[in-house]
Structures are given as structure tokens and as C-alpha cells.
User: Fold these one by one.
Assistant:
Number 1:
Amino acid sequence: MSAHPETPAPRPLGGFAAGLALVLVAVLVGVAAQRVSQGAPVPAAASAVAPTGHTTTVAVVADGMRFHPDRIEVPPGDRLVIELTNRDDRRHDLVLDSGAKTPAIARGGTARLDAGVVGAATQGWCSLPGHRQAGMTLQIVPTGSAPATTGHPGDAHAAPAAPHLDAMAAPGDGFAARDAVAPATPPGRLHRRELHVKEIEREVAPGVRQRLWTFDGTVPGPVLRGRIGDTFEITLVNDGTVDHGIDFHAGAVAPDEVMRPIDPGQRLTYRFTATRAGIWMYHCSTMPMLHHIGNGMYGAVIIDPPDLPRVDREYVLVQSELYLGPDGEPGDLAKMQAERPDAVVFNGYVSQYAHRPLPARAGERVRVWLLDAGPNRDSSFHVVGTQFDTVYREGRWENRPTDPGGAQVLGLGPAAGGFVEMVFPEPGHYPFVSHVMVDAERGARGIFEVR
Ligand SMILES: [Cu+2]
């Protein structure tokens, strides 16, 4: 198997490299293709070309989120048969413009695709979510014809438009915001739980529904909490339709086994011991991670610093971006790649705490834990009308109430976290935002209602 001739070639990087790659592919096809005559009827051709009665067979390997080769030249009029082998650790299939397709095959699996008589350039791709946009495409070209145009893979077909999102719209009366209250630190030292991957359709802004990929049906996933020295034994169960995995930043462990993607119906147990304090991200570990995190697969693990004082109230806010796909479908990977979010949100829903404010009382000390789940954008958390006398960021106390200085924002890059504390001076409505103003205006905002 490892001595197979179709060892993945380097990706072409420019004109010269592309030209070289074409020569290599031509040689590769010349070696791998078997052209045989046969009298059996052939499937209808995509364009009018006289069938030659020959069949060209090409071995294609799926590996590293690419097809090798990713361009196949076929004598016009030949029938093309592709023998697909998957060497990746995740499932793939191959779909053609014509509608011909293989089933999804697991690592080591093979499938045979009859592409019919080749008369015109044809596109192929892997139809598992995100794989086409991540670059899993294949061109079939009649020998001697001009190369097919290669636009952005995500633009290769006209997709239905994304729904319109109004960041100022109010949710309906029945809307319940996600509970932002931080869970209490549980007493035990071993935290055992199952996390089920669920692919669910849910509202992310008033009137806007998306098919989200989730841990346990919520976005963000459940907030887990413990102390330094605690062990977490998490069993991930994939109740979804595509492969998923998990990666906990809260523990140090070799990724090979525990972070591997698992097929639908499978489970794995991920054990780690928390040795350092902070608010740590967890997220799906399946490629393209940009798509899996961008479509909802993230959450937080809080490991309390040993000297964490009691406060009157504690909240958790996880910031993330929304890249809308068509209504009721997963988020749009092409937008994620272009860093063009439709909205930026706290705890998964546009401006939810502007409509359902978080309560507090004047004179109370309030702690807000923050995690920037991204996947792409920084957060700059600010509460209008207050100053932070306490800042804890990425494992360090940066400000304490006894310090003469204070802080106006908690700045976080993607996957970073921390907490701030403040005392509200008097009753009122104190807006909170990411002070990246374009993000505040597209949904990263809320209100503390202080009585
Ligand atoms: Cu996933």
C-alpha cells in the first residue's frame, strides 16, 4: 500500500510549478491509466463526442484533503473510470458535475466511479462538508482541450443566497437567551461526562436559522469547570452525519489518539488532568477546523486559579463569529476563509443580552469570564460606564483591586481567555461590547441591567 505509485506530489505554487505539475500529472496518468477496448454500452456523455469504444482507467488517491492527481487528461471520446482510494484519516467521496458519485469511503477504502464518455472538461470534488472549499477538487479534461477555468472552488456553483441578518432586530417574545451564569466549581476531583456531537438547526439571530454543529446541542458547548489537579474524563459521542473530534486546551496530552476525528456513531474517551489555571478553549479537531469551529463547535473549560476570591456574581461570555450559509444550512466556509463574518456574537446569538440584559446590583462585585473562540477575530471586551479593577488574562493576574491602575478592556486573540471584575457604582444600564466597533455593531454587544 505504501509503495503505491501515486505518492502525493507537491501542490503547484505558480506558473512554473503548475507547468511542471502538469507534466508530472501527464506522466503519472500515462503510467496509471489503462486504456482498454470494450464493447459494453457506455453511459450517456455530457457532450456530443464520438465514443472511441476505449476505457481509460485512472487511480486517484485522496490524501491530506487533496485528490492526487487533481487533474486527469483523457482522450476525447474515451470512457473514464476512476478508482478512488482513501488514505486520509477522515472520510471522503468523489462527486462529478454530471451527478456521478462514489459513496463516502473510510481510510483504506476504495470505490469505483464510472464517469462515462469524456467530451468536455468536468469538475469533481469531495462533497463532505467543507472539503470542496478546502481544496478537494479534481479536473477531468479531454486531451488537447484548453484547461478548464479555475475560479474559487467555493464559487464553482451558484449557491442560494444567505439569509438577511439585521443585527438590530429584536427576537420574538418566546426567545430565551443562553444562561450566562458561570457554573459553580463542582466538589469532585474527577469530572466524567459524555459530550454528544449533534448537528441541529437553530436560530442564531432573529429570523435566521442555521444548521449548526454542536457539542451537546448548544453553541457554545457546555461550560466545564474544575480546579488545578482535577482530572476530566470526557467521552465524545458522534451523533452527527460527518466526522468530528475534540481538542481540549485545558490539558497537555499527545493529540494523536484523543484528538482524532471519529466517524458518525463512534465514540472516544479523552482524559486529561488540569495542571494550570485559566479559561481554556475546546473545539472540534476535524479538518477543516475553520469550518467546524466556525459552525459552532467550541466551548470553554474554566480551571480556577488557586487564590480565586468569591464574588457576588459570575458570568461567562464566549465571543465568536457567524458566517451564514443559506437558511437552515451550515455556515459558509468561503466566507470564513475570506474573513467576512455576517455577525459577531456573545454566547452564540446576535445581541441576545441587549434584549435579555444580564442582571446585577449596585455595589456588587461582578466577574465576567471571557473566551474568544474566534475562529478569526480578536475581542476587546469593554463595559460602558465601568472600569475593571481586576484583570486576569491567559493565566496571569494583570490587575488587582489594590493596584492604583485599572483597565478599560480585556483584549484577547482567538483562543485566548481570562476574566475581569468590576463594581457597578449605581443603578443603570451598562452596555458591554467588543470595542472592535464594527463587531459591536454586528452583534457583539449586550447590557448589564443594574438595580
Ligand atoms: Cu466537527
Number 2:
Amino acid sequence: MTGRLDRWERLLDRQLAVAPYALLAVSAVLALLDGRGTPWLTAGLVALTAAWMWLVPRRAAYVAGLVVLIGVLCGRSVWFASFFSLVGYLHTWQYLKGAWRFAGVSATAAISVAAYQGGLPDPTPSGVLTYLFFTAAVVAAVGLFSFVGEVTSERSAERKRMVTRLEETMRENAGLQAQLLVQAREAGVLDERQRMAAEIHDTLAQGLTGIITQLQAAKRAERAEDRGRHLDLATGLARESLAEARRSVHAVGPGQLAAAPLPEALQEVVARWGELNGVRADFTVTGTVRPMHPEVEETLLRTAQEALANTAKHAGASRVGLTLSYMEDVVTLDVRDDGAGFVPERAGEAGGFGLTAMRKRVSRLAGTLEIESEPGEGTAISASVPAVSRD
Ligand SMILES: Nc1ncnc2c1ncn2[C@@H]1O[C@H](COP(=O)(O)OP(=O)(O)OP(=O)(O)O)[C@@H](O)[C@H]1O
Ligand SMILES: [Mg+2]
């Protein structure tokens, strides 16, 4: 749309630049064909006018000179009044400002009208009045057309500015959208990376830790019977970890939850943990047990697993207790041990991932995680998530 308008505008500009010479040429040819006056003088004046238009910078002095030249040419032939005098109006309007425009247009009009009348009017009142009337009519007409033209071009320029601004805004918006898209994609990638990291930690890393513990115990065992038991446990752990890793690759929930409701799955996890680590572990359920949204159950199961893994790894506890409480709005899991304890604020310093992942999982469900611990005082972890029922 704007492209076509621009092309038209450029074409018009080019024609406006050529038009004065064309009008001068037409007037000159007709004047020479007329055969009045000295041809070479006319030709010389025409050449001078052309040179004036070509060479002199377009300022007030140029317009003054042009009007004088128009006057001289019109004195030689009326054909110059018919065609070339238009250039006087055009350039006066284009290159002068304010009242000077009217002065220039009036001078040009006075010259043309005089040329049409075959010279200046007789000094009678009616002669002078007629002359002034025609001159004023021409000035009014030229002024009106020029004014309308100016308003139109002003308006089209304004419209063009608006279109340009609109295009700019649209371009900016497109850029912004692309940026948002990239950010959303990056956020998605980051989310997925965190999820994968948590999965690897909860399945493979925990499994491998348990396997290593069992293998070390097997190595230390003096009786063949004990060695066999530890090796069996290690094999079992390896199988389970492999199965869990496969499930997490396919983004399926934990196997324990597929087989049993949350309280039973936790009971099983706690019992096995006690057996593997030789530590007394108790599990209690309170409140009205009801099926929760899979993500709620998975979060609580993973929290219990990591808390137990940490107890085995860091606490050296003699007792562990887990409580699962179903309340009206929230489901809470508490894990307490009587082990070594630690300073929660400094837990991240060793570069562990478990507690961070635990916190992320819980806060993703708009839940809360509290860790209470002190060196020598044992540890209590409490995860609370909204009680979103399974639909
Ligand atoms: N029950 C606990 N008893 C004593 N210290 C604990 C206990 N739980 C966590 N900690 C301390 O908090 C730190 C951070 O735990 P976190 O689970 O984040 O990492 P990690 O267990 O060391 O490594 P990862 O879980 O990544 O295998 C542990 O290194 C440990 O010092
Ligand atoms: Mg850990």
C-alpha cells in the first residue's frame, strides 16, 4: 500500500522537476512560430530563463528573478503567459513563505493578465478595475488550489507517518513475541532438566548408594550365609533401580504406587529400609485415608525415600519414625530420626541435591517443607502438600 503511494509520489516529483522546462519549451516554440518580434532575442531570453532555473539555487532571489523573466517573456509573446507563467505560481508557492507567497503569486498573475490584455491597462477607472479584478481572481484561484494541495499532502504525510509508526510497533511486537517464546522455551527446558535431575537422583543415585552399602557389607561379612544375603539384597536393589529408571524415562509414576495405595507403599518402603539398614523404623498413619492426586502421592513417597536415604547415609540413627497425616486441607509427612543431626542452613554446602530436589517437588505443588535439625539432636523433616483428591 505505502509502496505504491511512494512510487506515485516519486513519479510526481520527477515530473514536477521536468515540467517547468517543458512549459518553457512549448511556450517558446509557439512564440517562435507566431513570428512576431526578433526570434533570436526571444530564443536568447528563453535560454537565459532555462539557465536561471537550472543553475540558481531555489531561494527568494531565484523566485524574484524568475518573476522578472516571466514578465519580460510575456512582453514578447502571450504564449508565455498561457504556459510558462504557471511555473511562476508553482515556484512562488514552493520556495517562498507566508505573505511573500501572495506577493509572488500576485506579481505573476498581474504579468499574465497584462499579457492577455495586450499590455498594461488604460489608466481609466474601468480599465484599471477590470485589470485588478482578473488579477485578484487568478490569485484567489491559485491560492485556493495551492492551499487545498498543501492540506492534502500534509494529511497524506501524516497518514504515512502513522503507517510507519504502526509498522514499527508491529515489528517491535513481533520481536517481543519471539523473545517471550524463547524465554518460555528456556523455562520449559530448565523445568524438564530439573525434573530429570530429580528423577535420576531419586532412582539411580539412591539405588546405587544402597547397592554399594550392601556390597561393602557383603565384603565385610564373615559367614557365607550373611554374604549371600547382602548380595541378594544388592541384586534386588539393582533390579528395582533399573525398573524405576525405566519408569522415569517414560515419565510414569513410581512402581510402588502403581502396586499399592500410598500408606501401604510407604509401609513397604519403611520396612525394607529397616531391613536393609538394620535400624528400627516405625510407620504411622493418622486421619481419614483417601486416594490423593498421583502427583501428591508421588511427592510424599519421594520425600520419604530421600529422608530415609539421608538418614541411612548421614545420621547413624538408632530409630526412625514416619507419620503420614491426612487432614482436611493438607496431607503431611513427618520423618524423624535420633541421629547426628546437622545445621540446615549449611546443608547445601556439601553440594548435595536431595534436599533441594525435595523442596522443589513440594513447592511445585504449593506445599511447604520444614527441616528441623541440630548437631547431636536428630532431624525432623515435615512436608505438607494440599490434599488434592484423585478425580
Ligand atoms: N537425616 C540427616 N541426618 C544428618 N544429616 C543430614 C540428614 N539429612 C541431610 N543431612 C545433611 O544435609 C546435607 C544435604 O543433604 P542432601 O540430601 O541435599 O545431599 P546428600 O544426601 O549429601 O547428597 P544427595 O542427596 O545428592 O545424594 C547432607 O550432606 C548431610 O550433611
Ligand atoms: Mg540426600
